[in-house]
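User: Second chain of the day. Same drill as before.
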Amino acid sequence: MCEPICERECVYGKCTAPNICTCDDGYEPDTHDLFACKPTCKNGCLYGECIAPNVCICNKGYSLNTSSVCEPICSETCVMGTCVAPESCSCFMGYGLFENSKYICEPVCEKACLNGRCTAPGICMCNEGFQLSGDESEEHICKPYCETSCEPFGVCTAPNVCSCFEGYRLANKMQIEKIVSIKLARLYYGNPRSISMI
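Assistant: Same format as last time:
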């Protein structure tokens, strides 16, 4: 019986015609060497090397997951993000990397939160003593809140601090309490002509 001759021995294959190698199962022809076959991995071997049929060894900075896929390794958990390359996090939509950190993604507000902090993408939470005005164009501005209204002759310039307009001064605490009581009585009883404050 005559058999084909190959100039060199077929690596992981058999000589099936003159100078033609047919690869064993789990191997494919090596494009750089006609007489060699290289192993194949069913899922490919991205970020690694296929060293035997369906056996991957991952590159440095990657590890094999349960699906036999090489995944990047981040030494710390990516907070509100995903590890996309060794020691590199990509943040979820609406989040950005925190200053001087490769692993902590913080919410991003399009405009800086004035007198508050960004707690979720596009959402400001006010510091104590401040509140949002309710105006959609000022969603990022927390204005000081005064328990007793400073209007109509002044404005609240800091938490519980009224600044009066020119020609006006702050009423003493007793007068303020009377004003508040009158306002509450009007809300409760309507608008009587006279309310006696004793």
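Residues 173-189 form the longest helix (17 residues).

User: Great, on to the next one.
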